[in-house]
Amino acid sequence: MQVTERDIEILGWINRMRFATAKQVGIRFGIGIWYTYKRLRKLDVEGYLVHVRPLRDAPGVWLCTEAGARMSGTGLWAPPRKINIATFRHDLGVIDLSIELEKRGVWLSERELRRGGDYRKKVPDGVLLMEGRRIACELELTRKSVRSMDRNLAIYKRNIEYDEVWYFVDGAAVENAVRKATEGIDFIRVIKLEEVLKDA
User: Which site among 33, 62, 100, 164 is 20 to 30 Å from 183 CA-CA?
Assistant: First the structure.
């Protein structure tokens, strides 16, 4: 199979995200689902991608193999094929969010932020580079403990690397908890996830 420039773009994006569903690939690159499956399956047969289904009631995802990671040109190694079930739905949500935010600027994934760094260090779910600003983005799908929120906020208060922090929240309970924790912090915005994904 001849690997096209579009194939390399798809491999690069999947490797940056760590994994992605076929639907997410289709939306990100503006291609139909039939064509998306066709290209992903061919990349799988050629040894550039592998398909994993971590949950029976959730879509399977595609990951780069070592050959796919090299072909992608991202400089990122192939991710482990074992998917963390505890964070799987959150990780899929971050990818959905990144697709929409990339329409506004440049998205740096968590994998890119951790490149060559300390894996114990707290990094955002992603960073949006927009209009000269560096915006840390966090997706909150469930309520965190007060202690956990305070710990994360303390890190951002000490960090001059980001101009703003955007918290994307899902559901009224999560929104209320995050707004209460971040009240009075002027560099933090709390945004309803549904408002960002409504046109997706």
Answer: 100
Amino acid at 44: D
- The strand pairing partners of 193, in sequence order, are none
Rounded CA-CA distance 135/166 in Å is: 7
Distance CA 147, CA 128 (A): 26
What are the pLDDT digits (tens) for 158-175? 888 899 999 999 999 999
Average pLDDT over every residue of 98-117: 93
Q: For each of the domains in the chain, give its residue range(s) and CATH number, in order of start.
A: 5-82 (1.10.10.10), 91-197 (3.40.1350)
Secondary structure of the chain as H, E, C letters: CCCCHHHHHHHHHHHHHCCECHHHHHHHHCCCHHHHHHHHHHHHHCCCEEEECCCCCCCCEEEECHHHHHHHCCCCCCCCCCCCHHHHHHHHHHHHHHHHHCCCCEEEEHHHHCCCCCCCCCCCCEEEEECCEEEEEEEECCCCCHHHHHHHHHHHHHCCCCCEEEEEECCHHHHHHHHHHHCCCCCEEEEEHHHHHCCC
Please tell me the total number of residues recorded for the chain in this structure. 200
What confidence score (pLDDT) does residue 170 get? 95
Structure tokens at 80: 């482990």
